[in-house]
Amino acid sequence: MSWTSILDQLYAGSWDSALQRFRSPFAFRGLARSDHTLTSSLLRLANGREDVGRLESALLRNFRKYARSEGAQTDSVWDLLALGQHRGLPTRLLDWTYSPLVALHFATEDPADFDADGVVWCVNFVEANRKLPRRLQQILEREASQTVTVDMLASFRALREFDALSREPFLVFLEPPALDRRILNQFALFALMSSATARMDDWIKRHPEMCRAVRIPARAKWEIRDKLDQANVNERILFPGLDGLSRWLTRYYMPARPQPQKNSHRRTQKNTDSEERRNTATEEHRKTQPQKNTEEHRLRRTQTNGHRRTRKSSHRKTLKNTDGGGDGDDLRADDAGDRDRAAGRTRRAADRGAADSRSGRG
User: Fold this and answer.
1) What is the pLDDT of residues 166-196, one digit of tens each?
2) In contact, 192 and 95? CB cutoff 8 Å
3) d(CA 177, CA 78)
4) How far does CA 111 lie from the centroid of its chain?
5) Buried b (16+ CB within 10 A) or exposed e, 110-132
6) Chain-wide mean pLDDT for the chain?
C-alpha cells in the first residue's frame, strides 16, 4: 500500500454535496500497532475493577483540589475533564483529531513500532450524532454544530446527569477549550462515552457502518514518516516548546533501520530448492552406478601401490648413485696426490744418498 493510496482512503467521503466543498465528517485516531484497542486511560487504570465510577470521581475530585495551586480555577466538570485529559490524568476521554495527517503522525511517531502494522481509525461523527439522545441532538441543532463543547454541556453539572440520558451507551465528540497551542495545533477533539465503564470498541462493533480502519503497513511507515516531516507535521509543531523540538530532532536524525529486500524469501527458497535438487540427482546417480568388483578393486589398488613403491625405490637409487659418484671422485683425486708426493720424497732421498757417497759421509 502506497502513500497516495493511504491518503485516498483517509480522505474518502470528504465531499459535502450540500456545501460543494470538501468537508470530511470523520474524526481520526492513529495507533502505532493495529492490535491496540480503543480503551480509555481510565479503564486501563481500573484494570478490571468494578467500581470504575468511584475511581473516576476520586481522580477528578483530587485533581480539582491540587490543580488550584497550579492556577487551574474551574468549577465545571467538563473543563476539569478536558484539562485532566490534556495533562495526562486517566479519564473516560479518548484523543482524536479532525486531521488525518495528525492521526498518521501518531501512527508513525515511534520508530520502535515500525516493525508492526499501524492503523488509523475513522469515525463519522455526523452520523454518530443521529444515535444521540434527543436532548443532545436539540443542543447541537440549536448551536448549528456537529460536535459539542464544554459550554454546550454546562447544563449537566455532574457526569451522572449526563450518563442518565440513555440506558444504552452512546458516543459524542467533544471539542476541548483552547487550553494551549498544543490543542490548537493538533486540531484536537475528544471522544466522550456516556459511561465510565463503556468501551468505544464495543460501540464500533454495534455501529460498523459509521467506522472504518485504514491499515498502515509496516513497510510503508518510513516513507510516511519522512513525507509527514516534509509536510511539517511533526513533534516540533504538534508539541510546541523545547520538549517537542528535542523529540523531533532525536527522531529526525535517527538512522533508518535496514529494510528486508524484496523477494529475498523467494530467492532464498529458490536457492534451497536448487540445492536440494542437485543433492537428489547426485544421490540417484550414485545409486544407479554398478558396484565395483571387490577383488578387481583390490588388485588395482595393489598394482597402484606397487607402482608407487617402484618409483620411490628408483628415485632413492638415483639419489644414492649421484651422491656416491661425487664422493668417489674426490677420494681418487686424494690418492693420486698422495702417490705423487711419496714418489717425490723417494727421488729426493736417492739424490741425497748419491751426494753423500760422493762427499764421503757414511
Assistant:
1) 999 999 999 999 989 999 999 999 999 999 9
2) no
3) 10
4) 7
5) ebebbeebbbbbbbbbbebbebb
6) 82
